[in-house]
Write a structure and sequence with these properties.
It is found in: Cell membrane. The protein has about 280 residues and is mainly α. About 80% of the residues lie in helices and about 0% in strands. It has one domain. It has ten helices and no strands.
């Protein structure tokens, strides 16, 4: 089976546009903190983060914050706080898409997520618990005079300032637009890639949304979804009568094309960031 390259190229293009949109949306979160960053630096920091996640899960957020901190002179704690805000928004968007998907394919999707959905929500509960503990800890050291605790307090205050930047956005309509644009492009990436496999070319939007949800959970189980992503796609497509080889082929084509472009652009970003920011 030979995949039609024009659909792969279109999916890759949509993916790159979504990354650009994410980089541009990030500027809205940094602006209330008093920082106006270059789109090129924002974009390359995002791509470096994606590249890092392929090696160590969630290390990309830290490296992304460190990159923008280095080249835009933004305190890391504030930059990282804005990334946390982004992740909260992303979670809400994923939950919205899950809700919409349930309207299309409630029984089939629920049968698949019955075991899978526990892990993300447990992770969310742990994250919320850690956040609460962090807030309690920050309040406990608020009046401390210990030098180490003072440094921790200052870092925590900066982190919270970055998180709170979402409530100070002046261009809220633009921020919301780019949020929906990013996730709309994600879904479009899935939709157009279906034409690369004859067995999936006629799938309607309902199954595509179901595969999107399954793929999103798979991406969080391993570094960059390697191995797990195609398996998850094939498993959900089995529910729609698509044989396993065709489902896995679709998953590998989508994962492989997007991962390849993330590696290429991420590596080029490492190379060009210091060149384009020589004055810094």
């Amino acid at each position: 089976m030979q995949a039609d390259p024009k659909w792969i190229l279109l999916s890759i293009t949509l993916g790159v546009i979504s990354h650009l949109a994410r980089a541009y949306r990030w500027k809205f979160l940094l602006a209330p903190l008093g920082y106006s960053v270059k789109l090129s630096n924002s974009f390359m920091a995002v791509m470096i983060g994606y590249l890092a996640n392929l090696g160590i899960p969630r290390s990309g957020e830290i490296l992304r914050g460190g990159t923008i901190s280095t080249y835009e002179n933004i305190p890391f704690k504030k930059a990282f706080g804005t990334i946390i805000s982004e992740r909260v928004i992303d979670l809400l968007m994923l939950l919205l898409i899950i809700a919409i998907t349930l309207l299309f394919q409630s029984e089939l999707l629920l049968s698949y997520l019955q075991e899978k959905i526990a892990s993300p929500f447990i992770s969310l509960a742990i994250l919320i618990g850690l956040l609460i503990c962090g807030i309690i800890f920050l309040r406990a050291i608020k009046t401390s005079t210990n030098p180490i605790l003072i440094k921790l307090r200052n870092f925590g205050d900066g982190l919270l300032e970055g998180v709170k930047s979402i409530s100070k956005i002046k261009q809220r309509k633009a921020f919301i637009f780019y949020t929906f644009l990013i996730w709309g492009l994600y879904i479009c990436m899935f939709y157009v890639i279906k034409f690369t496999v004859p067995e999936t070319a006629s799938l309607p939007i309902g199954p595509i949304l179901a595969t999107f949800v399954a793929g999103s959970f798979a991406m969080s189980t391993t570094n960059g979804g390697i191995g797990a992503f195609p398996i998850a796609i094939a498993a959900i497509l089995l529910l729609f009568g698509i044989e396993k080889p065709a489902g896995e082929a679709l998953g590998w084509i989508l994962w492989g094309s997007q991962t390849a472009i993330n590696i290429i652009i991420g590596a080029l970003s490492f190379l060009f960031l210091p060149i384009l920011n020589r004055e810094k």
